[in-house]
TrEMBL record:
Official protein name in the record: Mini-ribonuclease 3
MF-aspect GO terms: ribonuclease III activity; rRNA binding
Keywords: Cytoplasm, Endonuclease, Hydrolase, Magnesium, Nuclease, Ribosome biogenesis, RNA-binding, rRNA processing, rRNA-binding
Subunit annotation: Homodimer.
Subcellular localization(s) per the UniProt record: Cytoplasm
Organism encoding this protein: Candidatus Borkfalkia faecavium
Cofactors: Mg(2+)
Gene designation per UniProt: mrnC
Biological process per Gene Ontology, one example term: rRNA processing
Gene3D superfamilies for this protein: Ribonuclease III domain
Catalytic residues, chain numbering: D26
């Protein structure tokens, strides 16, 4: 049985398909952004949705990742590159192929950190970048 926020051994998470890590990272990052916006403001849901969408979009994630790249560990860089270079089953409607690939790499890193329970590292990477 699984419990909410259950963690996974680092070795198992490292061995996962990068697109699967990105699948988890997409959800974790979306929740992180939504929580950050709610804690930082008292906007109505329509405004919150617009603000969140801009940050969670492939373009927003790719721009953020460009700022984060120099701060990644070797392990995170390897996961980013696997995610960026992975064959993806879908294409982005509103971003270039390059932006979509970078955003998938970003999501893979966030997914990895989320699955291993390294929430402090997620905070360290993106907390000051959102609002």
């Amino acid at each position: 049985m699984i419990t909410f926020n259950q963690t996974m051994p680092r070795e198992r998470a490292r061995a996962m398909n990068a697109v699967v890590l990105a699948f988890v990272g997409d959800a974790a990052y979306s929740l992180y952004v939504r929580e950050a916006l709610v804690f930082a403001s008292d906007y109505k849901t329509g405004t919150l949705q617009k603000l969140a969408s801009a940050r969670v979009s492939a373009k927003g994630q790719a721009a953020l990742m460009q700022r984060l790249l120099p701060r990644l560990t070797d392990e995170e860089t390897e996961i980013f590159l696997r995610g960026r270079n992975a064959k993806k089953p879908t294409k982005s409607k509103n971003a270039s192929v390059a932006e979509y690939n970078v955003s998938t790499g970003f999501e893979a890193v966030i997914g990895f950190l989320y699955l291993v329970g390294d929430y402090a590292r997620i905070d360290e990477l993106i907390a000051g970048e959102l609002i």
